[in-house]
Amino acid sequence: MFRILLISSLSFTLVACSSHAAETKTVASDAATAAATLSKKSATPVKQLVAGISASSSTATTHTSVSKKLAAAATSAATGAVVETKAAVKDEAGFKRYAAQLQIEAQQRGYSKALTDKVFASLTFHPHAVVADKGQPEFVETLDTYLPKRVNKQRIDMARKMYQEHRTELAKIEKKYGVPARFIVSLWGLESAFGRITGNFSVPSALATMAYEGRREDFFKQEFFLALDILAQGHIELEQMKGSWAGAMGHTQFMPSSFMKYAQDGDGDGHKDIWTNRSDAFASIANYLKIEGWQPGLTWGRQVQLPKNFDYSLVIPTGSKSRSQWLQWWQKSERSLADWQKLGVRNIDGAALPKRQVNAALVMPDDKEGRAYLAYANYQTLMHWNRSYYFVSSVGYLADLIAKG
Q: Residue 141 has what pLDDT?
């Protein structure tokens, strides 16, 4: 499932390419100017370019000859960068050519002519989706500022209302899948505002646009063909297959690959319809959590207090590069509640931790400056849905507030 993670919940290091001219007294100001121009035009090759010139120059080389080499190379590379930029411009004409190649591949894969004719005739280029993908917002956020916005009074009230209105239906799903109804409603509310905000992009068009954009072409091409599979299987009509600009679909905001793995026919009508059928959406959310290891009878975690002089090496670090790395960090942190109690960890209200045979890892989404949580095994499952401490915290927080309502 494609998800857009808050940049504030991750740690990114921006590496700038720098010129070896700054380290070498023999390169004059005109070379530095050329290097600066090159850095602005095309940052990637500048370090290799200057390093190559430095390596090929003997210690007897005058700064003038090096300067000329660097200036000439910079001009050439900068010109190339401009040409490359122009070639990389994405427009309607280029999209049509790309879509024509996609259609050939679809026919080679064996999709019916009727399906491919209908889908490819409908494809529309969405340039603003390309802009959105390249220009996701960057801002500093903490859990204390994030939670009140994501889990505000309106969403809490609506979640409690939806929980009560659909309690009978949810109870059946909870019994079948072993996932508490409050977590189903919480995910439903946070993903699509209880089915009210599901996206109005044609999913095939959105996915074809993102594949054409090119940064993650293989991923989005695969999702595009899986969307064709969903249509071929008759779960939804093309006109109703709507989603986000990145192709996340319906009440659950599943990508097509997640749909194929987790979607369920909740009401037994022979279709898996996460766009217009609430029962199918509820069952699909529950099935996702069940398949990914949800443990019945266990909650997600609890906010805790840490003692003075606490050993913060016991906390799972932030900024994991992959789920496997994060799980390795989890294993190093995980201890029994009794062990955490001995280390001085207490409930957020200062009370002792529950006397249960349960293991937990310690999570601090904002490091030492922010909240601390003892996370149970179901926290891992929610992190599979979206590997973001902020998102998982909001799901658990809203689920707890539903229970208190």
A: 85
Judge whether 223 lies within some domain.
yes
Q: Categorize the per-residue pLDDT at 133 as very low, low, confident or very high, splitting at 50, 70 and 90.
A: low
Instruction: Give a yes or no: residue 397 inside a domain.
Output: no
Are 66 and 124 within one domain?
no
Contact present, 74 and 52 (Cβ < 8 Å)? no
pLDDT of residue 137: 52
- Any domain includes 238: yes
Whether residues 164 and 234 fall in one domain:
yes
Q: Count the residues in the chain.
A: 405
Question: Is 24 part of a structural domain of the chain?
Answer: yes
User: How many domains, the chain?
Assistant: 3
Rounded mean pLDDT of 226-248?
A: 97
Query: Among 70, 87, 104, where does a domain finish?
Result: 87
307 lies in the same domain as 169: no
Of all residues in the chain, the percent with pLDDT exceeding 70 is: 76
Same domain (yes/no): 226, 96: yes
Backbone angles phi, psi at 249, to 5 degrees: -120, 140
Domain that holds residue 219: 90-293
Residues 182 and 289 placed together within one structural domain of the fold: yes
Question: In the 3-class helix/strand/coil scheme, how is the chain assigned residue by residue?
Answer: CCCCCCHHHCCCCCCCCCCHHHHCCCCCHHHHHHHHHHHHHCHHHHHHHHHHHHHHCCCCCCHHHHHHHHHHHHHHHHHHHHHHHHHCCCCHHHHHHHHHHHHHHHHHCCCCHHHHHHHHHHCCCCHHHHHHHHCCCCCCCCHHHHHHHHCCHHHHHHHHHHHHHCHHHHHHHHHHHCCCHHHHHHHHHHHHCCCCCCCCEEHHHHHHHHHHHCCCHHHHHHHHHHHHHHHHCCCCCHHHCEECCCCCECCCCECHHHHHHHCCCCCCCCCCCCCCCHHHHHHHHHHHHHHCCCCCCCCCEEEEECCCCCCHHHEECCCCCCHHHHHHHHHHHCEEHHHHHHCCCEECCCCCCCCCCCEEEEECCCHHHCCEEEECHHHHHHHHHCCCHHHHHHHHHHHHHHHHC
Question: Residue 53's closest CA among 41, 40, 79, 71?
Answer: 71
227 and 150 in one domain? yes
What integer pLDDT is reported at residue 405 of this predicted model?
A: 78
